[in-house]
Write a structure and sequence with these properties.
mainly alpha
Amino acid sequence: MAPWNLILRMVVAAEDYIVAQILRSPAFHRGVRSIHDRVQEHRHGRNPHEPLRPGEATRDPDQQSSSGFLSHFIDELRNQARGQPTDPNRPMPPSTTTKDKTDKR
């Protein structure tokens, strides 16, 4: 038997062992189940017989949750680029430059 054939058989046996260990793992099956549930929910909508998830009963259904932080962050960056503060009623902090320090003498 050629040495490369022996090496190939060892690699295949190691792969079979690793796959068997993964398939025995309950964490793997929980992960697959959660992915399957998300895909099914995306395709067919929410199952009305399942209980509500944490925070789902108090969430505003009209609000888009995926763009919440990102939209606020982009608005803040735009305001900073324009030089406008986010809250116009709040006073701006005093700027300290070297000119201000020399003028105070």
